[in-house]
Amino acid sequence: MSDPTPFAERVLDLVERIPSGQVMSYGDIAEYLAEGGPRQVGKVMSTWGGGVPWWRVVHADGTPPPGHESRCLTHWRQEGTPLRGARADMRHARWHGDPP
């Protein structure tokens, strides 16, 4: 596997800063970084995201990455992430990033 690109490094750095019990969507991350889009963030996470708290990155509707639902729920429950059924409650769990 190749080394992460500069964009990937910025994505992974941001994911590491998402506080326990909170989440950001793929699109939130792209918007916060003002580059890329949800698909590009998803590609970074699928390629290099295993070493960061990947369960804190979700779809815009709060659903976890496909195939990782059970592991996400376990992490979310341990961290006290606000939930709506089997998804993160985006109204209460969304992290908006560090203040400027």
UniProtKB/TrEMBL annotation:
Keyword presence, ATP-binding: no
Gene3D superfamilies attached to this UniProt entry: Winged helix-like DNA-binding domain superfamily/Winged helix DNA-binding domain
Keywords: DNA damage
Domain Methylated-DNA-[protein]-cysteine S-methyltransferase DNA binding: 6-65
Keyword DNA damage on entry: yes
Highest taxon, organism lineage: Bacteria
Protein name: MGMT family protein
